[in-house]
Amino acid sequence: MSYRAGFVGIIGQPNAGKSSLMNVFVKEKVSIVTAKPQTTRRRIMGVLSRPEAQVVFVDSPGIVKASKGLNGFLAQEAKDVIEQSDMLLVVLSLDERSPEALSDVLNLVAESKKPKVFMIHKVDLSQFEHRISKIKDLVLEKFPGALVLNFSSEKPDAEKTEQVFQELISRLPESPEPLYDVELFTMQTTRELAAEMVREQCFQELHQEIPYSLAVQIGKYDESDARLHKIFAEILVAKHNHKAIVIGKAGSVLKKIGTEARKKMEDVLGVKVYLSLNVSVKEDWQENPRLMKELGYVVQE
Ligand SMILES: Nc1nc2c(ncn2[C@@H]2O[C@H](COP(=O)(O)OP(=O)(O)OP(=O)(O)O)[C@@H](O)[C@H]2O)c(=O)[nH]1
Ligand SMILES: [Mg+2]
Questions:
Q1: From the CA of 89, how far away is ligand 2's center (Å)?
Q2: How many CB atoms lie within 10 A of CB 103?
Q3: How far apart are CA 83 and CA 117, in angstroms?
Q4: Mind spelling out the 3-state secondary structure of 225-284?
Q5: Ligand (nearest to CA of 105)
Q6: 124 C-beta closer than 6 A to ligand 1
Q7: Ligand 1 test: best mutation among 10, 11, 18, 20, most atoms within 8 Å of CB?
Q8: What's the whole-number average pLDDT of the chain?
Q9: If you write DSSP's letter for every residue of the chain in order, what string do you get?
Q10: Each residue's pLDDT tens digit, 135-167
Q11: What integer is the mean pLDDT of 6-23?
């Protein structure tokens, strides 16, 4: 078989396990994962290179309906991933209670003629086993003859993973060479990875609307000592009263976020990390196109 390479857009509802799935295939923690929906905010690429093929997974924000603000950006980002990928991996989770949410995903991908593989995800959740055939019927009704695979990223099985991989590469275009350096597993810079690790920890430690309305920016990133990266990160919150909550009593919450994020960075970056965190208020940044742009959530004005 000739060499193949291309972009596989991972599309699904919020919390369907898209980022977890990509991390399983890439065998690295490329994209952050939390129990809360809307964790992923922009496309994240993860690369799997093998002698016969290179698969560039493109993780995307879960599908939401919105046209403005941060949610508008998330919706647009998912649409752009559909448009710019060579094929789609459509993730339908067993723990999604709403049939409408599944239909929304199917309707959105139906607008694209690109090759598609459907995946019923989280099949380790045996209490929802009865939903497997229902979801499969829903897919086949709309996409007769489509390939529908079952998968669990929580308990990935090597044989199943290989099967999915083979199904994906058989639908990718032939390519004279890899698209990216075969040593790379993500296109994110260390700064971007570090910011995401802080955001992941914020999602884990904070509740209600706070994680959804914060952003993380890396100020200084000092790698002059190759064994100890010094990282200065700013957590931007949207409201004055959020600042005290993120800091916590005597700084306890911020300290926990910092300690855990630092450990994750050390794991992923493979170096010791000194992490300094600061919290500041940028009022309602997620409604403000200029501030959103500054934070990397690029929006058309
Ligand atoms: N039981 C089970 N849980 C899973 C599986 N895959 C992911 N999860 C959990 O589902 C939750 C959401 O996972 P993510 O990978 O962040 O989901 P996502 O689709 O990227 O979510 P957004 O980025 O918010 O759209 C996390 O708590 C994961 O641990 C799976 O195969 N089985
Ligand atoms: Mg995600």
A1: 14
A2: 12
A3: 16
A4: CCCEEEEEEEEEECCHHHHHHHHCHHHHHHHHHHHHHHHHHHHHHCCEEEEEEEEEECCC
A5: 1
A6: yes
A7: 20
A8: 96
A9: ---EEEEEEEEESTTSSHHHHHHHHHTS--S---SSS----S-EEEEEEETTEEEEEEE-PPP---SSHHHHHHHHHHHHHHHHSSEEEEEEETT---HHHHHHHHHHHHT--S-EEEEEE-TT-GGGTTHHHHHHHHHHHHSTT-EEEEE-SSS--HHHHHHHHHHHHHTSPB-SS-SS-TT-SB---HHHHHHHHHHHHHHHH--TTTGGG-EEEEEEEE-SSTTEEEEEEEEEESSHHHHHHHH-GGGHHHHHHHHHHHHHHHHHH-SEEEEEEEEEE-TTGGG-HHHHHHTT-----
A10: 999 999 999 999 999 999 999 999 999 999 999
A11: 98
Give the Cβ contact number of residue 32 at 10 Å. Answer: 24
Nearest CA to ligand 1 atom 7: 17
pTM of the model: 0.97
Averaged over 119-145, what is the pLDDT? 97
**Cα of 20 to ligand 2 centre, how many Å?**
7
Q: Which residue has the tokens 């100020």?
A: 219
- pLDDT over threshold 90, residue 1: no
pLDDT at 301: 62
Please say if the pLDDT value at position 99 is more than 70. Answer: yes
Asked whether the beta carbons of 93 and 174 are under 8 A apart, the reply is no
Return the ligand number nearest the Cα of 36.
1
Domains and CATH numbers, the chain: 4-170 (3.40.50.300), 190-294 (3.30.300.20)
